[in-house]
Amino acid sequence: MKYLRLTGIFLFVFILWQVDWGEAVGIISGMDAGALIIACLINIAITIAKAWRWHWLMRMQKVSLSFKDALKIYLSAYYYGALTPGRLGEILKVFYVKRYGGTSAAVGLSSVLTDRLMDIYTSFVLGCLGLYFLDLLGPLNWLGLFIPAVSVVFLGVMLNRRVAMFLIDRLSRILLLRRISIKADALVREFTEATLELIKPGIWLPVLITLITYAVFFYGCLLIAGALGVQIPYRDIAFFVSIGTIIAIIPISIAGLGTRDAILILLFARIGTGQDAAVSFSLLLFVTFTVLLGLLGYVAWLLTPLDKPGKDELQLDRLQRD
Fold first, then answer.
1. Which residues contact 88 (CB under 8 A, 6 or more apart)?
2. Cα–chain-centroid distance for residue 113?
3. CA distances from 127 to 50, 88, 241, 243, 315 (A)
4. Is residue 10 helix, strand or coil?
5. How far apart are CA 46 and CA 297, in angstroms?
6. Residue 21 DSSP class
7. Which residues fall within 8 angstroms of residue 234, CB to CB, at 6 or more apart?
8. Selected residue with higher pLDDT from 223 and 290
9. CB–CB of 254/84 below 8 Å?
10. pLDDT per residue over 9-57, tens digit each?
């Protein structure tokens, strides 16, 4: 099982083996460098906005942490996340918030999961819509509309605090209590209460930030594609990248290498774009929106006292102790 995460890497190596590097280098060397710089600046702006979104969620929970520290933690955790399958390393934000925000791991976990799920859910819905409008599911194409519709109804139901309390409590017990002692019951209640603190009118601001950042993100992707000479509608680039993002989350690779590239090659082929151009786009996307943030996160980690937590801190809380 531990070697499963190498699947994407092997796939990535295979894809690179198949690329005509003379063609690919020619495509990249002839690109508009100005568009790439703008895309990088857009990515930095998006990251700052998402860090502010997370900071707002913590404010709703009355967590005492400045935006400056939230930004440092966000970038530092992104650095760890980029090195782990499915970006699971970003869970380190929980321990940083516990240490520097003066709160418990349960409260930190609540805001971190909510922040991450906002991105995953947006990509998931757009990916499903992409499967529908691109007619990729054949006879099951209706699922591309049905699944997002059901998920929206579910979220609407979750706005009822009683229903939300019941569902969050049940889910957290399933995920936690089967692996932890009975003393975790208080931890589950604390996590539930912290999550309910987010079901307020103020949650619409983080939702709005999510929608805006994704709209701007897809524009940055469009700039990269255009710089490579790939002509593609905004709608299609949004669907392509969203589907690729969902595939990249599957924890069988590092930073989505291989899995994202494979799906983008297949999707770009639908608009007549060759493999070399598709791989060039995927690599530039990786450099612009993963490597760049990873480097900024590494610098943030070096310049701040946000050290990796020790083994004694990698506990859900004191509730686990005798």
1. 81, 251
2. 11
3. 20, 21, 8, 4, 35
4. helix
5. 14
6. H
7. 218, 219, 222
8. 223
9. yes
10. 676 676 767 667 677 777 777 777 888 889 999 999 999 999 999 999 9
Residues 131 and 220: beta-carbon distance below 8 Å: no
Query: What is the average pLDDT across 181-195?
Result: 72
Q: Which DSSP string do the residues of 156-209 spell out, in sequence order?
A: HHHTSHHHHHHHHHHHHHHHHTTTS-GGGHHHHHHHHHHHHTT-SGGGHHHHHH
- Please give, one letter per residue, the 3-state secondary structure of 146-169: HHHHHHHHHHHHHCCHHHHHHHHH
Distance, in Å, from the CA atom of 57 to the CA atom of 51, rounded to the nearest integer, reads 10
pLDDT over threshold 80, residue 66: yes
On average, the pLDDT of the chain sits at 80
Alpha-carbon gap, residue 53 to 207, rounded angstroms:
9
Single-letter amino acid, residue 311: K
